[in-house]
Protein backbone atom coordinates (compact mmCIF):
# COMPACT_ATOMS: atom_id res chain seq x y z
CA UNK A 1 0.00 0.00 0.00
CA UNK A 2 1.35 3.38 -0.96
CA UNK A 3 0.39 6.39 1.04
CA UNK A 4 0.79 9.92 -0.29
CA UNK A 5 3.55 11.60 1.71
CA UNK A 6 3.23 15.03 0.12
CA UNK A 7 0.16 17.12 0.65
CA UNK A 8 -1.46 18.67 -2.42
CA UNK A 9 -0.31 22.27 -2.89
CA UNK A 10 -3.59 23.96 -2.24
CA UNK A 11 -6.74 22.56 -0.72
CA UNK A 12 -9.96 24.50 -0.59
CA UNK A 13 -11.05 24.77 2.98
CA UNK A 14 -14.27 26.56 2.28
CA UNK A 15 -16.23 26.89 -0.83
CA UNK A 16 -19.01 29.39 -0.42
CA UNK A 17 -20.57 31.41 -3.16
CA UNK A 18 -18.77 34.66 -2.37
CA UNK A 19 -15.16 33.53 -2.01
CA UNK A 20 -12.80 30.64 -2.18
CA UNK A 21 -10.32 30.31 0.57
CA UNK A 22 -7.35 28.30 -0.51
CA UNK A 23 -4.94 27.14 2.12
CA UNK A 24 -1.38 27.92 1.06
CA UNK A 25 0.72 24.92 2.01
CA UNK A 26 1.00 21.53 3.67
CA UNK A 27 -2.18 20.32 5.18
CA UNK A 28 -3.17 16.78 6.08
CA UNK A 29 -1.14 15.42 8.95
CA UNK A 30 0.65 12.19 8.12
CA UNK A 31 -1.13 9.03 9.20
CA UNK A 32 -0.73 8.51 12.90
CA UNK A 33 0.77 5.29 14.16
CA UNK A 34 -2.61 3.95 15.26
CA UNK A 35 -4.16 4.70 11.86
CA UNK A 36 -1.35 2.82 10.17
CA UNK A 37 -1.91 -0.07 12.48
CA UNK A 38 -5.56 -0.20 11.59
CA UNK A 39 -4.78 -0.05 7.90
CA UNK A 40 -2.26 -2.85 8.30
CA UNK A 41 -4.72 -4.96 10.26
CA UNK A 42 -7.34 -4.50 7.52
CA UNK A 43 -4.83 -5.58 4.93
CA UNK A 44 -3.96 -8.66 6.95
CA UNK A 45 -7.64 -9.48 7.34
CA UNK A 46 -8.11 -9.27 3.60
CA UNK A 47 -5.28 -11.75 3.08
CA UNK A 48 -6.53 -13.99 5.85
CA UNK A 49 -9.79 -14.34 3.95
CA UNK A 50 -7.93 -15.25 0.79
CA UNK A 51 -6.31 -18.66 1.44
CA UNK A 52 -9.54 -20.33 0.33
CA UNK A 53 -8.51 -19.22 -3.16
CA UNK A 54 -5.62 -21.61 -3.07
CA UNK A 55 -7.50 -24.80 -2.29
CA UNK A 56 -9.12 -26.39 -5.29
CA UNK A 57 -11.69 -28.98 -4.30
CA UNK A 58 -13.59 -29.89 -7.43
CA UNK A 59 -16.90 -31.74 -7.37
CA UNK A 60 -19.11 -32.67 -10.30
CA UNK A 61 -22.82 -32.83 -10.89
CA UNK A 62 -24.56 -34.03 -14.01
CA UNK A 63 -27.96 -32.94 -15.27
CA UNK A 64 -29.70 -35.68 -17.22
CA UNK A 65 -33.42 -35.83 -18.05
CA UNK A 66 -33.96 -32.78 -15.82
CA UNK A 67 -32.45 -34.52 -12.79
CA UNK A 68 -29.25 -33.90 -10.89
CA UNK A 69 -26.86 -36.80 -10.37
CA UNK A 70 -25.86 -37.49 -7.69
CA UNK A 71 -28.89 -36.08 -5.93
CA UNK A 72 -26.87 -35.86 -2.74
CA UNK A 73 -23.30 -34.62 -2.83
CA UNK A 74 -21.08 -34.62 0.24
CA UNK A 75 -18.45 -31.87 0.41
CA UNK A 76 -15.95 -30.83 3.07
CA UNK A 77 -16.69 -28.06 5.55
CA UNK A 78 -14.87 -24.75 5.63
CA UNK A 79 -13.21 -24.68 2.22
CA UNK A 80 -14.12 -23.13 -1.05
CA UNK A 81 -15.50 -25.69 -3.49
CA UNK A 82 -15.47 -25.67 -7.24
CA UNK A 83 -18.69 -27.24 -8.44
CA UNK A 84 -18.72 -28.31 -12.08
CA UNK A 85 -22.22 -28.92 -13.38
CA UNK A 86 -22.52 -30.69 -16.69
CA UNK A 87 -25.85 -30.33 -18.47
CA UNK A 88 -26.37 -33.31 -20.76
CA UNK A 89 -29.90 -32.23 -21.66
CA UNK A 90 -30.48 -30.21 -24.79
CA UNK A 91 -32.43 -27.57 -22.86
CA UNK A 92 -30.94 -24.87 -20.63
CA UNK A 93 -31.20 -25.06 -16.86
CA UNK A 94 -30.74 -22.58 -14.04
CA UNK A 95 -28.91 -23.85 -10.99
CA UNK A 96 -30.44 -22.00 -8.08
CA UNK A 97 -30.00 -22.26 -4.35
CA UNK A 98 -31.07 -19.67 -1.83
CA UNK A 99 -29.29 -21.75 0.82
CA UNK A 100 -26.00 -21.45 -1.05
CA UNK A 101 -26.83 -17.95 -2.29
CA UNK A 102 -26.06 -18.97 -5.85
CA UNK A 103 -27.71 -18.88 -9.27
CA UNK A 104 -26.26 -19.75 -12.61
CA UNK A 105 -27.59 -20.44 -16.08
CA UNK A 106 -26.30 -23.56 -17.74
CA UNK A 107 -26.88 -23.80 -21.48
CA UNK A 108 -27.97 -27.10 -23.02
CA UNK A 109 -25.17 -29.61 -23.71
CA UNK A 110 -22.58 -27.64 -21.79
CA UNK A 111 -20.92 -27.38 -18.39
CA UNK A 112 -20.66 -24.56 -15.92
CA UNK A 113 -18.46 -23.90 -12.92
CA UNK A 114 -19.92 -22.56 -9.70
CA UNK A 115 -17.80 -21.59 -6.72
CA UNK A 116 -19.50 -22.30 -3.39
CA UNK A 117 -18.60 -22.04 0.27
CA UNK A 118 -16.68 -22.10 2.49
CA UNK A 119 -19.65 -23.86 4.08
CA UNK A 120 -20.64 -24.56 7.66
CA UNK A 121 -21.82 -28.11 8.38
CA UNK A 122 -25.34 -28.62 7.12
CA UNK A 123 -27.63 -29.48 4.23
CA UNK A 124 -27.89 -27.06 1.33
CA UNK A 125 -30.71 -27.88 -1.08
CA UNK A 126 -30.66 -26.57 -4.64
CA UNK A 127 -32.98 -26.81 -7.64
CA UNK A 128 -32.91 -26.52 -11.37
CA UNK A 129 -35.32 -23.64 -11.57
CA UNK A 130 -36.58 -24.47 -15.04
CA UNK A 131 -37.59 -28.00 -14.05
CA UNK A 132 -38.20 -27.62 -10.37
CA UNK A 133 -40.37 -30.72 -10.02
CA UNK A 134 -37.62 -33.18 -10.91
CA UNK A 135 -34.39 -31.22 -10.79
CA UNK A 136 -33.68 -31.21 -7.07
CA UNK A 137 -30.61 -32.03 -5.09
CA UNK A 138 -28.79 -31.30 -1.91
CA UNK A 139 -25.20 -30.53 -1.04
CA UNK A 140 -24.20 -31.87 2.36
CA UNK A 141 -21.27 -30.22 4.08
CA UNK A 142 -19.68 -32.36 6.77
CA UNK B 1 -48.80 -24.20 -17.14
CA UNK B 2 -49.11 -22.61 -13.72
CA UNK B 3 -45.51 -23.49 -12.80
CA UNK B 4 -44.33 -21.87 -16.03
CA UNK B 5 -46.31 -18.73 -15.31
CA UNK B 6 -44.76 -18.49 -11.83
CA UNK B 7 -41.20 -18.86 -13.12
CA UNK B 8 -41.65 -16.28 -15.85
CA UNK B 9 -43.44 -13.97 -13.44
CA UNK B 10 -40.49 -14.12 -11.05
CA UNK B 11 -38.05 -13.23 -13.81
CA UNK B 12 -40.18 -10.43 -15.22
CA UNK B 13 -41.08 -8.95 -11.83
CA UNK B 14 -37.68 -7.46 -11.07
CA UNK B 15 -37.38 -5.74 -14.42
CA UNK B 16 -40.99 -4.56 -14.21
CA UNK B 17 -40.42 -3.02 -10.77
CA UNK B 18 -37.34 -1.19 -12.01
CA UNK B 19 -39.15 0.12 -15.09
CA UNK B 20 -42.12 1.18 -12.95
CA UNK B 21 -39.97 3.09 -10.48
CA UNK B 22 -37.83 4.73 -13.16
CA UNK B 23 -40.92 5.69 -15.16
CA UNK B 24 -42.42 7.33 -12.09
CA UNK B 25 -39.19 9.01 -11.01
CA UNK B 26 -38.86 10.70 -14.40
CA UNK B 27 -42.49 11.73 -14.82
CA UNK B 28 -41.69 15.41 -15.24
CA UNK B 29 -39.09 14.96 -17.94
CA UNK B 30 -40.54 15.75 -21.36
CA UNK B 31 -40.41 12.98 -23.93
CA UNK B 32 -39.47 10.34 -21.38
CA UNK B 33 -42.12 7.86 -22.59
CA UNK B 34 -40.42 7.48 -25.94
CA UNK B 35 -37.05 6.90 -24.26
CA UNK B 36 -38.64 4.41 -21.91
CA UNK B 37 -40.18 2.47 -24.77
CA UNK B 38 -36.87 2.56 -26.64
CA UNK B 39 -35.11 1.24 -23.53
CA UNK B 40 -37.52 -1.66 -23.16
CA UNK B 41 -37.27 -2.48 -26.87
CA UNK B 42 -33.46 -2.38 -26.77
CA UNK B 43 -33.54 -4.58 -23.68
CA UNK B 44 -35.75 -7.15 -25.39
CA UNK B 45 -33.51 -7.30 -28.45
CA UNK B 46 -30.49 -7.47 -26.17
CA UNK B 47 -31.94 -10.31 -24.12
CA UNK B 48 -32.48 -12.40 -27.24
CA UNK B 49 -28.85 -11.76 -28.24
CA UNK B 50 -27.59 -12.61 -24.74
CA UNK B 51 -29.75 -15.74 -24.62
CA UNK B 52 -28.31 -16.89 -27.94
CA UNK B 53 -24.80 -16.17 -26.72
CA UNK B 54 -25.23 -17.77 -23.27
CA UNK B 55 -22.79 -20.53 -23.97
CA UNK B 56 -20.20 -18.19 -25.45
CA UNK B 57 -20.52 -15.69 -22.59
CA UNK B 58 -20.32 -18.50 -20.04
CA UNK B 59 -17.11 -19.74 -21.61
CA UNK B 60 -15.33 -16.41 -21.21
CA UNK B 61 -12.96 -15.68 -18.31
CA UNK B 62 -12.34 -19.40 -17.77
CA UNK B 63 -15.97 -20.24 -17.12
CA UNK B 64 -16.80 -17.15 -15.11
CA UNK B 65 -18.04 -15.04 -18.03
CA UNK B 66 -21.66 -15.16 -16.92
CA UNK B 67 -20.88 -13.87 -13.42
CA UNK B 68 -18.63 -11.11 -14.73
CA UNK B 69 -21.19 -10.15 -17.36
CA UNK B 70 -23.96 -9.94 -14.76
CA UNK B 71 -21.75 -8.00 -12.37
CA UNK B 72 -20.82 -5.57 -15.15
CA UNK B 73 -24.45 -5.06 -16.18
CA UNK B 74 -25.44 -4.45 -12.57
CA UNK B 75 -22.46 -2.16 -12.03
CA UNK B 76 -23.37 0.01 -15.02
CA UNK B 77 -26.97 0.16 -13.83
CA UNK B 78 -25.80 1.28 -10.38
CA UNK B 79 -23.73 4.09 -11.90
CA UNK B 80 -26.65 5.19 -14.08
CA UNK B 81 -29.09 5.16 -11.16
CA UNK B 82 -26.60 7.15 -9.11
CA UNK B 83 -26.29 9.66 -11.95
CA UNK B 84 -30.07 9.84 -12.18
CA UNK B 85 -30.45 10.56 -8.48
CA UNK B 86 -27.77 13.26 -8.52
CA UNK B 87 -29.39 14.82 -11.56
CA UNK B 88 -32.81 14.79 -9.94
CA UNK B 89 -31.35 16.22 -6.74
CA UNK B 90 -29.94 19.19 -8.59
CA UNK B 91 -32.77 19.65 -11.11
CA UNK B 92 -35.73 18.19 -9.23
CA UNK B 93 -36.76 21.45 -7.62
CA UNK B 94 -36.66 23.30 -10.91
CA UNK B 95 -38.54 20.57 -12.75
CA UNK B 96 -41.20 20.26 -10.09
CA UNK B 97 -41.74 23.99 -9.97
CA UNK B 98 -41.91 23.98 -13.75
CA UNK B 99 -40.15 27.30 -13.57
CA UNK B 100 -38.25 26.89 -16.79
CA UNK B 101 -39.34 26.78 -20.37
CA UNK B 102 -40.07 23.42 -21.88
CA UNK B 103 -37.26 23.89 -24.38
CA UNK B 104 -34.70 24.25 -21.65
CA UNK B 105 -36.06 21.20 -19.88
CA UNK B 106 -35.85 19.11 -23.04
CA UNK B 107 -32.28 20.13 -23.74
CA UNK B 108 -31.35 19.37 -20.15
CA UNK B 109 -33.44 16.26 -20.00
CA UNK B 110 -31.98 14.58 -23.05
CA UNK B 111 -28.88 13.30 -21.33
CA UNK B 112 -30.93 12.26 -18.35
CA UNK B 113 -33.22 10.37 -20.71
CA UNK B 114 -30.37 8.48 -22.32
CA UNK B 115 -29.27 7.43 -18.83
CA UNK B 116 -32.80 6.25 -18.20
CA UNK B 117 -32.77 4.30 -21.44
CA UNK B 118 -29.65 2.44 -20.34
CA UNK B 119 -31.06 1.57 -16.90
CA UNK B 120 -34.33 0.27 -18.29
CA UNK B 121 -32.59 -1.52 -21.15
CA UNK B 122 -30.16 -3.29 -18.80
CA UNK B 123 -32.93 -4.32 -16.40
CA UNK B 124 -34.94 -5.84 -19.23
CA UNK B 125 -31.81 -7.39 -20.73
CA UNK B 126 -30.75 -9.20 -17.59
CA UNK B 127 -34.10 -10.66 -16.61
CA UNK B 128 -35.27 -11.02 -20.21
CA UNK B 129 -32.36 -13.21 -21.25
CA UNK B 130 -33.25 -15.79 -18.60
CA UNK B 131 -36.89 -15.71 -19.61
CA UNK B 132 -36.02 -16.18 -23.25
CA UNK B 133 -33.80 -19.16 -22.43
CA UNK B 134 -36.48 -20.71 -20.28
CA UNK B 135 -39.20 -20.30 -22.90
CA UNK B 136 -36.84 -21.54 -25.59
CA UNK B 137 -36.21 -24.65 -23.52
CA UNK B 138 -39.92 -25.33 -23.33
CA UNK B 139 -40.52 -24.72 -26.99
CA UNK B 140 -37.60 -26.98 -27.92
CA UNK B 141 -38.44 -29.93 -25.69
CA UNK B 142 -41.99 -31.16 -25.29
CA UNK B 143 -44.32 -31.33 -28.25
CA UNK B 144 -47.95 -30.95 -27.19
CA UNK B 145 -47.39 -29.69 -23.67
CA UNK B 146 -45.36 -26.78 -24.93
CA UNK B 147 -48.36 -24.80 -26.14
CA UNK B 148 -49.98 -24.64 -22.72
CA UNK B 149 -46.63 -23.83 -21.16
CA UNK B 150 -46.04 -20.99 -23.60
CA UNK B 151 -49.47 -19.72 -22.64
CA UNK B 152 -48.29 -19.87 -19.04
CA UNK B 153 -45.20 -17.92 -19.99
CA UNK B 154 -47.33 -15.23 -21.58
CA UNK B 155 -49.50 -15.07 -18.46
CA UNK B 156 -46.35 -14.65 -16.37
CA UNK B 157 -45.10 -11.78 -18.51
CA UNK B 158 -48.48 -10.03 -18.37
CA UNK B 159 -48.72 -10.49 -14.60
CA UNK B 160 -45.19 -9.18 -14.07
CA UNK B 161 -45.82 -6.16 -16.27
CA UNK B 162 -49.08 -5.52 -14.40
CA UNK B 163 -47.23 -5.35 -11.06
CA UNK B 164 -44.78 -2.89 -12.60
CA UNK B 165 -47.67 -0.78 -13.80
CA UNK B 166 -49.35 -0.86 -10.38
CA UNK B 167 -46.12 0.33 -8.77
CA UNK B 168 -45.93 3.14 -11.32
CA UNK B 169 -49.57 4.16 -10.85
CA UNK B 170 -49.20 3.94 -7.08
CA UNK B 171 -46.13 6.14 -7.04
CA UNK B 172 -47.88 8.77 -9.14
CA UNK B 173 -50.47 9.15 -6.39
CA UNK B 174 -47.82 10.48 -4.02
CA UNK B 175 -48.28 14.25 -3.66
CA UNK B 176 -45.70 16.18 -5.65
CA UNK B 177 -44.31 17.70 -2.48
CA UNK B 178 -42.92 14.35 -1.34
CA UNK B 179 -42.76 12.70 -4.71
CA UNK B 180 -39.11 13.32 -5.60
CA UNK B 181 -37.94 12.45 -2.11
CA UNK B 182 -39.90 9.19 -2.27
CA UNK B 183 -38.69 8.14 -5.72
CA UNK B 184 -35.17 9.30 -4.89
CA UNK B 185 -35.08 7.03 -1.84
CA UNK B 186 -36.54 4.14 -3.85
CA UNK B 187 -33.91 4.54 -6.57
CA UNK B 188 -31.21 4.83 -3.90
CA UNK B 189 -32.12 1.47 -2.37
CA UNK B 190 -32.60 -0.06 -5.81
CA UNK B 191 -29.02 0.90 -6.67
CA UNK B 192 -27.66 -0.38 -3.35
CA UNK B 193 -29.47 -3.69 -3.87
CA UNK B 194 -28.01 -4.01 -7.35
CA UNK B 195 -24.53 -3.34 -5.98
CA UNK B 196 -25.05 -6.13 -3.46
CA UNK B 197 -26.12 -8.48 -6.27
CA UNK B 198 -23.06 -7.52 -8.27
CA UNK B 199 -20.90 -8.36 -5.25
CA UNK B 200 -22.61 -11.74 -5.00
CA UNK B 201 -21.73 -12.51 -8.62
CA UNK B 202 -18.13 -11.46 -8.05
CA UNK B 203 -17.94 -13.72 -4.99
CA UNK B 204 -19.54 -16.54 -6.99
CA UNK B 205 -16.90 -16.03 -9.68
CA UNK B 206 -14.22 -16.19 -6.99
CA UNK B 207 -13.00 -12.71 -7.91
CA UNK B 208 -13.70 -11.35 -4.44
CA UNK B 209 -13.61 -13.12 -1.07
CA UNK B 210 -17.01 -13.61 0.55
CA UNK B 211 -15.69 -12.32 3.91
CA UNK B 212 -18.39 -14.39 5.64
CA UNK B 213 -20.86 -16.69 3.98
CA UNK B 214 -23.42 -16.12 5.12
CA UNK B 215 -23.03 -13.05 7.28
CA UNK B 216 -26.45 -13.79 8.78
CA UNK B 217 -29.36 -16.07 8.06
CA UNK B 218 -32.86 -14.64 8.23
CA UNK B 219 -34.38 -17.31 5.99
CA UNK B 220 -36.40 -18.59 8.97
CA UNK B 221 -37.82 -15.13 9.56
CA UNK B 222 -38.40 -14.07 5.97
CA UNK B 223 -37.57 -16.67 3.29
CA UNK B 224 -36.23 -15.12 0.14
CA UNK B 225 -38.44 -17.31 -2.03
CA UNK B 226 -41.59 -15.96 -0.35
CA UNK B 227 -43.63 -13.23 -1.98
CA UNK B 228 -42.49 -10.58 0.50
CA UNK B 229 -38.91 -11.81 0.26
CA UNK B 230 -38.95 -11.62 -3.53
CA UNK B 231 -40.43 -8.14 -3.52
CA UNK B 232 -37.97 -6.88 -0.92
CA UNK B 233 -35.13 -8.49 -2.83
CA UNK B 234 -36.08 -6.59 -5.98
CA UNK B 235 -36.82 -3.30 -4.24
CA UNK B 236 -34.18 -2.92 -1.54
CA UNK B 237 -31.85 -5.84 -2.22
CA UNK B 238 -33.03 -8.06 0.65
CA UNK B 239 -30.94 -11.18 0.93
CA UNK B 240 -31.70 -13.86 3.51
CA UNK B 241 -28.11 -15.13 3.52
CA UNK B 242 -25.80 -12.38 2.30
CA UNK B 243 -22.04 -12.65 2.06
CA UNK B 244 -20.06 -10.06 4.00
CA UNK B 245 -18.82 -8.57 0.74
CA UNK B 246 -22.42 -7.89 -0.31
CA UNK B 247 -23.01 -5.76 2.77
CA UNK B 248 -19.85 -3.77 2.09
CA UNK B 249 -20.96 -3.03 -1.48
CA UNK B 250 -24.48 -2.24 -0.31
CA UNK B 251 -23.32 0.17 2.38
CA UNK B 252 -20.69 1.83 0.22
CA UNK B 253 -23.11 2.55 -2.63
CA UNK B 254 -25.86 3.66 -0.26
CA UNK B 255 -23.59 6.14 1.52
CA UNK B 256 -21.90 7.37 -1.66
CA UNK B 257 -25.16 8.10 -3.49
CA UNK B 258 -26.86 9.60 -0.44
CA UNK B 259 -23.88 11.90 0.14
CA UNK B 260 -23.87 12.80 -3.54
CA UNK B 261 -27.58 13.65 -3.41
CA UNK B 262 -27.08 15.97 -0.44
CA UNK B 263 -24.18 17.64 -2.19
CA UNK B 264 -26.07 17.96 -5.49
CA UNK B 265 -29.15 19.46 -3.90
CA UNK B 266 -26.98 22.06 -2.13
CA UNK B 267 -25.13 23.07 -5.26
CA UNK B 268 -28.29 22.44 -7.29
CA UNK B 269 -29.33 24.18 -10.44
CA UNK B 270 -31.88 26.88 -9.81
CA UNK B 271 -33.77 28.15 -12.80
CA UNK B 272 -32.20 31.62 -12.86
CA UNK B 273 -28.65 30.46 -12.24
CA UNK B 274 -28.89 27.95 -15.03
CA UNK B 275 -30.03 30.49 -17.56
CA UNK B 276 -27.24 32.83 -16.58
CA UNK B 277 -24.72 30.05 -17.05
CA UNK B 278 -25.87 28.98 -20.52
Topology at a glance:
The complex is a heterodimer of chains A (142) and B (278).
Chain A: E1 11-15, E2 20-23, H1 33-48, E3 57-64, E4 67-69, E5 72-75, E6 81-87, E7 93-97, E8 102-106, E9 110-116, E10 122-128, E11 136-141
Parallel strand pairs in A: 3-6, 5-11
Antiparallel strand pairs in A: 1-2, 3-4, 6-9, 7-8, 7-10, 10-11
Chain B: H1 2-25, H2 32-52, H3 54-63, H4 65-97, H5 102-140, H6 145-172, H7 176-204, H8 227-236, H9 244-266, H10 271-277
Helix pairs in contact in B: 1-5, 1-6, 1-7, 1-8, 2-5, 3-4, 4-5, 4-7, 4-9, 5-6, 7-8, 7-9
Please give the radius of gyration of chain B in angstroms.
20 Å
**N-end to C-end Cα span of chain A:** 38 Å
Regarding quaternary structure, how should these chains be classified? heterodimer
The portion of residues forming beta strands of chain A comes to 35-45%
CA-based shape of chain B: globular
- Helix count of chain A? 1
Q: Roughly how much helix do the residues of chain A carry, as a percent range?
A: 10-25%
Amino acid sequence: MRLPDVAPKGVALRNANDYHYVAPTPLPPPLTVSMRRIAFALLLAAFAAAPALASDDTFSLVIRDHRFEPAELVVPVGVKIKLVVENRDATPEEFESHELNREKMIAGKSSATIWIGPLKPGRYPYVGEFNEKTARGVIVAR
Amino acid sequence: MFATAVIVFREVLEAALIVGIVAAATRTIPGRSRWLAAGIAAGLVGSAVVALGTERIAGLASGMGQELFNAAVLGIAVVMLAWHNLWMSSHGAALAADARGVGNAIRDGRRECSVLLVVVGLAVLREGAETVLFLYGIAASEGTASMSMLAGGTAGIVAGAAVGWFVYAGLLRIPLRWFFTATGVLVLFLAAGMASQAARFLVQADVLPSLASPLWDTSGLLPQASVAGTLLHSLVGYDARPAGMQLIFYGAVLIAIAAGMVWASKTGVRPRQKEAAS
